[in-house]
Amino acid sequence: FFLQFVFHTYTTGFTLVNGNGTPKAEEYSIQQKQIFLGLGAVSYAACVGALPLAFMNRYALKSSLMQVIVRKLLPAPLLGLTSAFTVAMVRSPEFENGIEVMDRNGKVVGVSKKAGEKAVMETALSRAVLFGTTFFLPEVLMYFVQRAKLVKNPRALAPVRMFVIMSVLAGMLPVSFSMFPQCGEIKRVELEPEILSSTEETELFYNRGI
After folding, report:
1. What CA–CA distance (Å, rounded) separates 136 from 107?
2. What is the Cα–Cα distance from 78 to 45, expressed in whole angstroms?
3. 109-163: pLDDT as tens digits
4. pLDDT for residue 28
5. Which of 33, 46, 93, 101 is least surrounded by Cβ atoms within 10 Å, i.e. has the fewest?
6. Mean pLDDT across the stretch 28-38?
7. Looking at residue 90, what is its pLDDT?
8. What is the spatial distance between Cα 107 and Cα 177, in angstroms, rounded to a whole number?
9. Three-state secondary structure along the chain?
10. Predicted local confidence at residue 85, as pLDDT
11. What would the pLDDT profile of 73-111 be if each residue is shown by its tens digit?
12. Which bin fits 149, alpha (ψ -120 to 50), beta or left (φ > 0)?
């Protein structure tokens, strides 16, 4: 639980710093709300991530099949889903209050909840792909390494695994960040009526965040 909590705290802090700064509200501080939502999301994600292992240990499920499922197969999709969840929670003010949309010249034409929703969903998906793949692919690679007996000393498996994870993460970072452009595009017809009446542009742009 502690390691999951530390991991999600770091990624949530990164999300908070690199989101879209448009949302404003008079009755409360958007940043305070994001911090509270982030703490709740981090706690929930850490519990979900630690639950399978805790369940296995609690009921002494030591079969080889259960070990493979809990230790090898579940962590990657769980980490991807919880990472996407924390992004959606901490950046929820962006689709609740909207973010700025601009024309090709950078002129702000309005604040759109539809654009905010699109920005958050794209970022959550890219984060899920980043961490899901980073923890799934090394397990596959290490399986072939062990099967081919490329590492003779069992003590060397841990540093080799760490090297593989870091290599996959380094490769996946640019892939994740380039899945969707930093300056996102949204069709005019997808926006709210008040924005449609204020511009004739067919495509508008917004800052997606990271």
Report:
1. 43
2. 9
3. 989 999 999 999 999 999 999 999 988 998 888 888 888 887 777 788 888 888 9
4. 54
5. 33
6. 80
7. 92
8. 25
9. CHHHHHHHHHHHHHHHHCCCCCCCCCCCCHHHHHHHHHHHHHHHHHHHHHHHHHHHHHCCCCCHHHHHHHHHHCHHHHHHHHHHHHHHHHCHHHHHHCEEEECCCCCEEEEEHHHHHHHHHHHHHHHHHHHHHHHHHHHHHHHHHHHCCCCCCHHHHHHHHHHHHHHHHHHHHHHHHCCCCCEEEEEHHHCCHHHHCCCCCCEEEEECCC
10. 95
11. 888 899 999 999 999 999 998 988 889 999 888 889 989
12. left
Q: What is the pTM of this model?
A: 0.85
Tally of residues, the chain: 210
CA-nearest of 53, 75, 179 to 134 is 75
Closest to 163 measured CA to CA, from 143, 141, 131? 141
Radius of gyration over every alpha carbon of the chain, rounded to an integer in angstroms: 21
Question: Tokens representing 60?
Answer: 């002494």
pLDDT at 66 over 60: yes
On the question of pLDDT at 23 being above 80, the answer is: no
pLDDT in tens, 181-190: 889 999 988 9
Strand partners for 101:
110
**Residue type for 47, please?**
C
